[in-house]
């Protein structure tokens, strides 16, 4: 099961990287997704491509976070909880020496 979720996670990550690189940035970037073309409402105008890529990026990001949380839960399943406090208590010295306090003077 972990292998399946991990494979999906890697595919989503690759898709997310490609989708982000295709988007047109303020400075032009790689901006491969938009195309020239004159006015009007063609099939994949710059605005339509931007909306499609934005939606696809959002969907892939949600999928990425979902698979990340799923993998984290699967990694910790079946293991007893470990607390750092327990380790510190076990390693603490039994006899501590401190300043000698005079008694009865």
What does this structure look like?
This protein has 105 residues and is an all-alpha fold. It has a domain at 1-34 and 46-75. Helices cover 57% and strands 0% of the residues. It contains 3 helices and no strands. It has helices at residues 2-22, 46-76, 84-91. α1 (2-22) packs antiparallel against α2. The longest helix has 31 residues, at 46-76. The N and C termini lie far apart (72 Å). 3% of the residues are buried. The mean pLDDT is 79.
Helix content: 55-70%
What is the 3D shape?
elongated
Low-confidence stretches: none
Series of H and E elements: HHH
β-strand percent reads under 5%
Report how far the terminal alpha carbons are from each other.
72 Å
Determine the structural class based on helices, strands and strand pairing.
Answer: mainly alpha
- Secondary structure: number of strands: 0
* Biggest sheet details: none
List keywords for this structure.
105 residues; mainly alpha; 3 helices; 57% helix
Give the helices and strands, then pairings:
Blueprint: H1 2-22, H2 46-76, H3 84-91
Quick summary:
With 105 residues, the protein is an all-alpha fold. The chain is built from three helices and no strands.
